[in-house]
Amino acid sequence: MFGLEGYEIQLIPAHDGGRNVVYTCEKKGADAQIIRVAFLPDRNREDFLGEVEYIQYLFEHGGSVSNVISSRKGNLLEEIIHNNHTFYICLFEKAKGKMLVENNYRYRKGVPITEYFYNCGKTLGKLHQISKGYTPVHRRHSFFDKYNAEYIDKLIPDSLSLVKEKMVELLNTLQGLDRNTETYGMIHFDYNDGNYSIDYDTGQITVYDFDNSCFGWYMFDLAGLWITGVGWVQFEPDAGKRKKFMDDYFETVLAGYRSETKIEDSMLDKLSLFIQVSLMENIVDAFEVMRNNGEEPECDEDLSYRIKCLEDDIPYKGFLHEIYSCEEPFMYEKREI
What we know:
With 337 residues, this protein is of the alpha+beta class. The protein has ten helices and ten strands. It has helices spanning 45-60, 113-131, 143-146, 149-155, 161-175, 218-229, 239-258, 265-268, 271-292, 301-311, and strands spanning 8-11, 20-26, 33-38, 68-69, 78-82, 85-93, 184-187, 196-198, 205-207, 214-217. Strands 1, 2, 3, 4, 5 and 6 form a six-stranded antiparallel β-sheet that branches. A two-stranded antiparallel ribbon has the order 7-10. A hairpin with a 6-residue loop joins β8 and β9. α6 (218-229) crosses α9 and α9 packs across α10 (301-311). It is globular and about 55 Å long.
């Protein structure tokens, strides 16, 4: 289907919560590619068409993304039915460079880390700016299609009634927010250093893994960048120093972001709100993974921490609060369900 004869095709090891089977395809003298096989029943043909159409739009308008490659038949999405099961297959260009984790979280030699922070914001700002002009043919879902009181009530165990209440409060707050073209549109919804590669020659970031993309507030992706930043200073015992670092970090991210698109101060003032929304998304995702794997719901130390932050209205993922321990970052005693 994709003309991959002669390519060496290797499975990329799965990660927790991953939903696809993914392979690298390499051949001497040809650009490396990534083939993705989706097999879970949680998405349909329209979802995938919406995703690949959006990626192609971003790429064609100058977004730094791994473009989707058409099959020999000219399709961005191919389907194979085997034993009455449908597999959805897409091929992508492999992003240049490597992930930070593959380089042990070291940045480019002799270049200040602030370049990376700026580029993170700049790359995201460009994607959001392009999104502001995007009108889909195949429409992806919107935030509230998934995050609503009914779904949360069904998914999360009744013994966690307080966190369910807090989530509904959050949703009600979000319902009152502006949804104009400057604040709300297609977003990545999982923008972090696991979903982009860095070209270590130039510092350019190339983004991929758009399978969570949806219509939502641009501020959600920026809150994700704030949360990603805590990793650089999570072992610092002094809360004042952690705060100083995060303020400087986010200022640099925003400078990069604003070099490509504008964002109102009134939205930036809602950073703390969107960090809470991100926590809600993480908690929902954890219970979805347990459900999809057929496991009984349980709360490990990591999930218990997130729940505690939501239940007690602790802002900024507890990073500047006494709940936080630099010896055991983002952990809290296990909750019995």
